[in-house]
Each structure stands twice: as C-alpha cells, then as structure tokens.
Amino acid sequence: MFEGFANVWTPLVEVRRVGRAPLRVMLAGEALVLFRHAEGVSALLDRCPHRGAALSLGQVCADGTIECPFHGWRFDRTGANVQVPLDPGARREHLDR
C-alpha cells in the first residue's frame, strides 16, 4: 500500500510541528522521518540502510543532512547518502522517499 503514496502529496502533520529535531510519523503502517533543512521539509523512510537504525533518533546537521545515530551516516533531503564517516570510499546507499 505504501508504494501508492510515493508520487502524490499526502498530508502528514502541520509543518510547524517539524522543528530542529527529526520527527517520526507513521503513514500506511510505514515509519517515516520528517526533517527541516534550508529548502523546506523532507520525508524519508525512518531507517538507515546500513543497520536499520531509526533516523528519527539521530540529528539534523548544520548542512541540512540527517545523521544516523549509530554510525553517523548522513543523508541529504533526497535520501542520497552523502557521508560515511569511517569509510569515505564506501558504496553509498540511497534511501527511498
């Protein structure tokens, strides 16, 4: 069922509820993380592809990326993995949005 939501606007929460910290929300049984950055607000699946940690337990960094709380992987507003701190040459994953 979640696949059907991928390409349409779906109201989740009032935008004012998305502050400096990541916000976990549920949609159609799927956990999402909302986070604020310079371009607005993004929604990604609430799990890091590395070890499945909830990104909502991490932090939003000054550059607008969201950082996984376990190993520090960072993802931009599109879900692209932009940093792997302990292995900069690692193959990077892209999160579904």
Describe the protein's architecture and organization.
The protein is mostly beta strands and 97 residues long. The protein has strands at residues 23-27, 30-37, 40-45, 59-60, 66-67, 74-75, 81-83. The chain is globular.
List the helices and strands and how they pair.
Layout (H helix, E strand, L loop, with lengths): L22 E5 L2 E8 L2 E6 L13 E2 L5 E2 L6 E2 L5 E3 L14
Antiparallel strand pairs: 1-2, 2-3, 4-5, 5-6, 6-7
The gist of it:
By secondary structure, the chain is an all-beta fold.
Write a concise keyword list for the protein shown above.
single chain, mainly beta, 97 residues, 4-stranded antiparallel sheet
Q: What series of H and E elements makes up the topology?
A: EEEEEEE
Q: How would you classify the quaternary structure?
A: single chain
Fraction in helix: under 10%
Total DSSP helices: 0
How many individual β-strands?
Answer: 7
Helix-strand makeup class: mainly beta
**Low confidence ranges:** none
Instruction: Report the average pLDDT across residues.
Output: 86
> How would you sum up the global shape?
globular
Radius of gyration: 13 Å
How many strands, what sense, and barrel or not for the largest sheet? Answer: 4 strands, antiparallel
Strand content: 25-35%
Distance between the termini: 14 Å
Widest sheet, order of strands: 4-5-6-7
